[in-house]
Write a sequence for this structure.
């Protein structure tokens, strides 16, 4: 642990009452297999940041056969990595008391890929057949239709295989910033154009930290420790020595390799996925009512969710926005 990290961790200890005589065991479930996009959480396990404020954190990976969000609702895990605010809105609509307490990603990493020279601007994508999965079609693609004039007719189902896109320049393809572009570059032998839908106005937070409303009410010191420890972890992961965290990631996911991790970190930094917008002045993890309201309105206008949901109940800003960890970011 670096001297600066130690100082910040000690500040956490002094700012919160001890949780237990021994570190309290909590379980955090991610929403997919271990990868660089989870790096800050693994960082705080590896360097002892969670332990410094009283938590013994176990990270349980998600995956195709794992539903950690269901385990949160069942009380079998304590915190969960949410996908974006649509999940949080839907929980409110269904009367489920899940609350987002932080948002690690200020930008959603969803992208549309295109062949260079065929579609070089966002507007050019309207001339392509777009490979979009069913989940994407019922969420962000409905916004693309309503806000930008894309059509349902130009969409074809995406089978999570890049081969049809690689073979046909008249096709575009959905992806995540840190994975599909890398796969296309390796398999197709070219660097695709990559359009981040967040830069076109899809303003949701992503990689949120969710917990139950009862946990916030009954264990606020624990929530504070986990959230602030995670924030510190993300600063150290992006800007410090992340070797130990990456070792834990590759141990948890044997299919993960250092080159994929390096690509993902580079993209998270270059595109401001974690540290941009409000996070630059209020700290990583920040959420604001203005941004949540903006996204809610866009989803209502696109017909993705019904109007009248108590969207304010989907999140709290109590544990973020105070600049925790900003001293760990290198000066420009």
């Amino acid at each position: 642990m670096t001297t600066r990290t130690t100082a910040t961790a000690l500040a956490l200890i002094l700012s919160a009452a001890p949780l237990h005589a021994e570190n309290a065991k909590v379980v955090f479930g991610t929403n997919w297999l271990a990868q660089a996009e989870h790096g800050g959480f693994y960082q705080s396990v590896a360097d002892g940041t969670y332990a410094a404020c009283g938590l013994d954190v176990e990270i349980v990976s998600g995956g195709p056969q794992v539903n950690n969000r269901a385990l949160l609702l069942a009380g079998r895990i304590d915190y969960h990595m949410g996908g974006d605010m649509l999940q949080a809105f839907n929980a409110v609509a269904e009367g489920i008391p899940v609350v987002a307490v932080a948002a690690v990603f200020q930008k959603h990493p969803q992208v549309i890929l295109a062949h260079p020279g065929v579609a070089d601007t966002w507007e050019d994508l309207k001339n392509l057949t777009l490979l979009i999965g069913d989940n994407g079609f019922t969420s962000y693609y409905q916004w693309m239709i309503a806000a930008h004039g894309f059509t349902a007719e130009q969409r074809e189902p995406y089978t999570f295989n890049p081969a049809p896109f690689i073979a046909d320049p008249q096709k575009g393809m959905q992806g995540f910033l840190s994975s599909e572009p890398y796969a296309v570059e390796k398999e197709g032998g070219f660097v695709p154009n990559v359009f981040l839908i967040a830069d076109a106005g899809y303003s949701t937070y992503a990689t949120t930290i969710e917990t139950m409303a009862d946990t916030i009410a009954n264990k606020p010191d624990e929530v504070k420790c986990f959230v602030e420890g995670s924030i510190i972890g993300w600063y150290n992961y992006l800007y410090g020595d992340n070797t130990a965290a990456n070792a834990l990631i590759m141990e948890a996911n044997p299919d993960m390799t250092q080159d994929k991790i390096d690509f993902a970190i580079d993209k998270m930094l270059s595109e401001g996925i974690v540290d941009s917008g409000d996070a630059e002045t209020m700290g990583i993890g920040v959420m604001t009512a203005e941004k949540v309201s903006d996204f809610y309105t866009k989803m209502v206008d696109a017909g993705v969710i019904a109007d009248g949901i108590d969207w304010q109940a989907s999140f709290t800003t109590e544990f973020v926005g105070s600049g925790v960890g900003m001293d760990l970011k290198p000066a420009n």
